[in-house]
Design a protein that fits this description.
Layout: H1 12-22, E1 26-28, E2 35-37, H2 39-58, E3 62-63, E4 69-71, H3 72-76, H4 79-86, E5 91-94, E6 97-99, E7 107-109, E8 114-121, H5 126-136, E9 145-154, E10 168-178, H6 181-201, E11 208-211, E12 223-230, E13 236-246, H7 248-252, E14 256-258, E15 264-266, E16 268-275, H8 277-286, E17 303-307, H9 312-331, E18 336-338, H10 346-356, E19 360-364, H11 366-371, E20 373-378, E21 384-388, H12 392-417, E22 419-421, H13 425-434, E23 437-441, H14 446-456, E24 459-464, E25 472-473, E26 480-481, E27 484-488
Parallel strand pairs: 3-9, 17-18, 17-19, 22-23
Antiparallel strand pairs: 1-2, 4-8, 5-8, 6-7, 9-10, 10-16, 11-12, 11-24, 12-13, 13-16, 14-15, 19-20, 20-21, 23-27, 24-27, 25-26
Helix pairs in contact: 2-6
The protein binds one RNA strand of 78 nucleotides through strand 13, strand 16, helix 10 and helix 11.
Length: 491
RNA sequence: CGGGGCGUAGUUCAGCCCGGUUAGAAUGCCUGCUUUGGGAGCAGGAGGCCGCUGGUUCGAAUCCAGCCGCCCCGACCA
């Protein structure tokens, strides 16, 4: 009997923790706030990476790598950026240890090795990258620069949760430089679309695209765009961000180029990123009390075949049938595993692969061998069907597509059922307690936003991009408003 | 950094209040046999600086002090 996962409706956050650990995605490490991503978790992340990486390359970007350590002075260059990140930076002050003079085997920081200029571990890389761009950009002919890096970064968080908020996390950060404002804005929105497409078509998580309010804006950006998703507890999770940085970093790092008219101009910047936090979104959007539910397009393993046998002869007979199926599936690029280990019983294997989120399970016993059938179980609905072996490859390929689609449809239906249009303060506060997304009017001031957050813990997730102009009054202050914004409690 | 809780077998925990045999259970692990269509059964076995340091005591997992670490709730945040 495996350890029990806390049920979702008993304690959602315990369910999440139990699930991440028991499904073998990740665990806490010896270093507080830093997680170990285990093979199963990393395999999903790798799939996310390779899909996104292709999309970045298809949109003209190239990868590079910039240093982990950033001189403290770089962070000071852009004021908003500095203020935003200063309080969560790990700082390197020394470069050497030495043995303790009295205690054998103990090491101490060598006070002689203090760095002249302290280095910070990157919380994000705008500064060190724009410092480089100064050397790379002289003319409009050098633009645009479209660079992405896959990296780890560190933000010294007070409270951490596996995948959702860790001190060290893995992500990609795109950093582009452009000759014109229009082109930079276009890039910002283009990458937001890449993210939205990825979330919806691969993660099977519907998202709302929008702009952040001033309060929620990235430190150093003029505009921050985001994709917001709803988790099964009705809370919002920001799954990706794309920033229009204007000329802030070009000015801070003195990045100027000669335009066609021979005049010096500051370059225009964007940055955009998604992180291992998406793993949290994936888990919380789809999984259930039995374990992970992974959409086929991200699953490290699509199909597991579990033989049910009493002896070696039976296993041989089943294996022969299974081999044909495996061959057929592999020809269709379906990733399949035949689990013929005799160290665990079939029932145990069923539960284990459900916990790991494998989309399709094929069970084969002697009954099936005789009838030329298999039993197919889909992870998303837990339905079991007995099907004939003929054209099984095509059947499973089609089933994987259906699972992918069903997971999206289900997530979308859940979001729709938990999204409310609200006009009164009483209704607003009542609904926020119950969870979900709320579209309400807002007077556009930070003061009102802060007040609402203080009173309800809800924040403005974004000003939706597909929102329509509509006259109304602010749900809190009663002042006039011309557009609804999206409120929710968030991760 | 505030408020609370907890450190005992790989894991989850009992024992501590009220000090006294060889420190227990469940689960997991190993071996063997029987099993195998939803987390099997029986038998045997291995596994512990009781978080660390010091103190009290004839004697400490248990009492006292200090330290370290972890978890939960707040403030901060992708």
């Amino acid at each position: 009997m495996a350890e029990k996962i806390t049920k979702r409706d008993i304690n959602y956050s315990e369910w999440y923790n139990d699930l991440v650990i028991q499904s073998g995605l990740a665990e806490n490490s010896a270093v507080r706030g830093c997680m170990v991503i285990k093979p199963h978790g990393w395999a999903i992340w790798e799939n996310m990476k390779s899909i996104l990486d292709k999309k970045f390359k298809d949109t003209g970007h190239v990868n590079a790598s910039f240093p982990l350590l950033i001189p403290k002075s770089f962070l000071e260059q852009e004021e908003g950026h500095a203020e935003g990140f200063a309080k969560e930076c790990a700082v390197v002050t020394h470069y050497r240890l030495k043995t303790h003079p009295d205690k054998k085997g103990k090491l101490i920081v060598d006070p002689e090795s203090r760095l002249e200029e302290e280095l910070i571990i990157r919380p994000t890389s705008e500064t060190i990258i724009w410092n480089c761009y100064r050397g790379w950009i002289q003319s409009y002919r050098d633009l645009p620069i479209l660079i992405n890096q896959w990296a780890n970064v560190m933000r010294w968080e007070m409270r951490t949760r596996l995948f959702l908020r860790t001190a060290e996390f893995h992500w990609q950060e795109g950093h582009t430089a452009h000759a014109t404002q229009e082109e930079a804005v276009e890039e910002t929105l283009k990458m937001l679309d890449v993210y939205a497409d990825f979330m919806e078509n691969y993660m099977a998580v519907p998202v709302i695209k929008g702009v952040k309010t001033a309060n929620e804006r990235f430190a150093g950006a003029l505009d921050t765009y985001c994709v917001e998703a709803m988790m099964q507890d009705g809370k919002a999770l920001q799954a990706g961000t794309s920033h229009f940085l204007g000329q802030n970093f070009a000015k801070a790092f003195d990045v100027k180029f000669l335009n066609k008219e021979g005049k010096l101009e500051y370059a225009w910047a964007t940055s955009w990123g998604v992180s291992t936090r998406m793993m949290g979104a994936l888990i919380m959007a789809h999984s259930d009390d039995d374990g992970l539910v992974i959409p086929p397009r991200l699953a490290p393993l699509h199909v597991v075949i579990v033989p049910i046998f009493k002896n070696a002869e039976q296993l041989a007979a089943i294996t022969e049938k299974a081999d044909a199926i495996i061959k057929e599936l592999k020809a269709l690029n379906i990733i399949v595993k035949f689990d013929d280990s005799d160290t665990a019983k079939p029932g145990w294997k069923f539960a284990e692969y459900e916990l790991k989120g494998v989309p399709v399970r094929v069970a084969m016993g002697m009954r099936d061998v005789e009838n030329n059938t298999v039993e197919i179980a889909r992870r998303d609905t837990k339905e079991k069907t007995t099907v004939a072996n003929e054209n099984l490859g095509a059947y499973i390929q089609d089933l994987l597509e259906k699972i992918q689609q069903n997971m999206y449809d289900k997530a979308l239906a859940f979001r729709t059922a938990n999204t409310f249009v609200i006009d009164t303060w009483d209704a607003f506060t009542a609904q926020i307690e119950k969870g979900g997304f709320i579209y309400a009017h807002w007077d556009g001031t930070s003061e009102t936003e802060d007040k609402i957050k203080e009173l309800t813990k809800a924040t403005i997730r974004c000003i939706p991009m597909d929102g329509v102009e509509e006259a109304g009054t602010c749900v809190y202050s009663g002042k006039p408003s011309n557009k609804r914004v999206l409120f929710a409690r968030a991760y």
